[in-house]
Structures are given as C-alpha cells and as structure tokens.
Amino acid sequence: MCGKYATNGSTPSxxxxxxxxxxxxxxxxxxxxxxHGDPTMYEWYWREVGERCSVTLSGFECLSYFxxxxxxxxxxxxxxxxxxxxxxxxxxNAVTENRHVVVGTGSSQLILAAIYALSSHPLLHHPNPxxxxxAAPYYSAYPEMTDILRSRLFKWGGDARCFNEEGPxxxxxxxxxxxxxxxxxAMVKGGGKGxxxxxxxxxLAYYWPQYTAITSPLDHDIMLxxxxxxTGHAGSRIGWAVVKDENVARKMVKFMEVSTIGVSxxxxxxxxxxxxxxxxxxxxxxxxxxxxxxxxSRRLLAERWNKLRDSLKSNxxxxxxxxxxxxxxxxKKSTETYPAFAWMKCKEGLDCEKLLREHKILTRSGTKFGSxxxxxxxxxxxxxxxxxxxxxxxxTIQD
Length: 399
Fold this sequence. Notes:
Structural class: alpha/beta
Number of helices: 11
Number of strands: 15
Oligomer: single chain
Order of helices and strands: HEHHEHEHEEEEHEHHHEEEEHEEEH
Strand content: 15-25%
Strand order of the largest sheet: 2-8-7-6-5-3-4
Radius of gyration: 22 Å
Distance between the termini: 42 Å
C-alpha cells in the first residue's frame, strides 16, 4: 500500500477513519468527489492480505529493457504472463490459450496501441483517417484519447449507433459498459456504407465477477483488461491485451516500444504477485485462509448498491436502471449486476451534474459520454466514508 495507508499490522474497520469517527465532521461538510473511478474501495482487502503479496527487489535486478527477446511482447515478464493466464482460467471470463498477451501501462495505452495497429494495416488502402466509434453512452475518455495526437491514421467518429460513413472503421466495444454497466455487443448497424469493413476492440475492464455475471469465456480478436478495475491497483498502471493475430500484436508492441520502450518491470512483478494472491484466494488449497477476493468485493458492491437504491426509493427526482440477473458460471448461480458506476438520471429537464454539485457532490455529466445532461456517472468504488456521506446527502435533495 502507499503512503499513510501502508500496512501497519492492524486491520481497521471498513468505516473507521484516521480520527476513529464514522464519518468525521470535516467529511460531512466536505466536497464528495465521485467523478473519478478511483478504486480505493479495495484498500481494506489488501490491508488484510498484508505482506503476503509484497515484492522485494535487489539493486541488480530488472536492469535490462528485455524480459524475453523471443516473445512477441519482449518486455512482458514471464511471471505476469503466467498469472494472467491463471486468473482468466480460474474466473472463466476470457480465452487466453494460444493467444498473444501484450502488457501496457494501463489499458489506456493499450487502447491507443490497438487503434494504431488496426488503422495502420497495409491492406486498408484508405486515404482518410479511419473512424473510431463507440455506442453512446461511451467511455468519456475515448474521444479525447483518439484525437489528442491528431493522427493521420485515425480520428474520433462519434456514436456507433449513428455511424454511416463509407470506408473502414474501428468500433470500441466496452462490456460491461462504462458508464452504464450494460453488457454490450458491436452496435454499428447493417446497411451502412462501411458495413463489413469494421474492426473491433473489446474493452473488458469490468468483465469480472464482482461487477457482473460471467456467462462465458469471451474470445474476441482484441480483448483489453486492466489491474485497476480487476484488483483496485490503479496506481500500478498495468493493463494487458489478449490478441489473436500475431501481426496485430506485433504492431501493438511496436507502439509501446516507440512511446515508452516497454512497461515497468517493477510494476509488472507487483501485478503478478497480486494476481497470484487472487488466484490463491479462489483455490481450494488456500492454506493462508484468504477471503475469496471476488466474493469479498461483490459483498461490498452489493451493500453499496442496496444502500443507494434504498435511499432513492421514495424520491421521484432520481432514477436508477435495473439490470438482469443472468446465470454466473463463476458463482454457479444467477446473480445481480453491481456495476462500478451508477448511471443515474434526474427528472427531465434538470442538469443532474449541476444539481449535485450545488450539494457538494462531484459527478461526471452525461454530456461527457455522448448522452444528455439529465444523466450523471457516479463512482461506486471510493472509500466507505465518502460513499456513506454521499448517500446521506443525496437523501436531502428533494423535488
């Protein structure tokens, strides 16, 4: 753990803060920032794990750029690759056998690497930048990250549901979707001028059993994952892509090579230990008596979602979507969906982000996601104290 939240041998209550109050008076008056998906909710689980997944490196280790020069992704640490395969096999959410694993500095770098790899394909023969689209509401960072370099290879093309331009395109399919938690498939409809020339990138950052039912192991051409939303270790900046085509994987690696000359080995080794700890917590040979990570995380999210829904039952000002309860192969039963974000709608005509900001609650407006101002995205992944104050404050806002 980092800074003041480093493990010190004690395991505080989920609702304790540094002053021992629940929550403290300063927090009751403070701005509650639920704009970012900062996954500090997971902090308590890793406090309990303590030193069991710590990494110690000597000064002579990790000097070389290379991890395995014979591997397509030559900077990928073998231990991390092994643990990635293991955790996907244990969870059953993705096919990784006989696939290429590409590690990146978070999934954000991998998104750009994948867009670069697809848009620079020599067989495209297209004079204009390739359109990159995603169905609204789409992840708010997609337009900015696509256009920030003003590339001649690709450009943001907007809402996939409305896309009808001629030529090749790349569709970003986020499933479960950020911001609304809905399971997604490709959305570009048949009959469009570019139909049949589409290339897909599946962003599966939230396809883990604490958020949604694992209905099958997915097997798409390019699948992106991140340790940030899987385990909560956003600060380690580790993501990985599972790629079918070797040429695409090599182009993604080239993008990383040019932009950052690989990915931090220290971060990779820490991520490997964290994933190993999760796999151990799922194992029947769990001699360390670790709480099943996904059961633990799911309980926390279920508690939060139930609190939020209960607080809004008699308030016509706000509305939350309901989700299906599909059968989950991981938990071996039908399960509720508990997304990492609440996609909340205010009464028609209201600017929901502005309304909540007036009550010192910071959220992200639906307009950032290609949707309407009546919607906001609310992070469900912060610390308990912040979430509890948010729910209390939300109950005071009436029509």
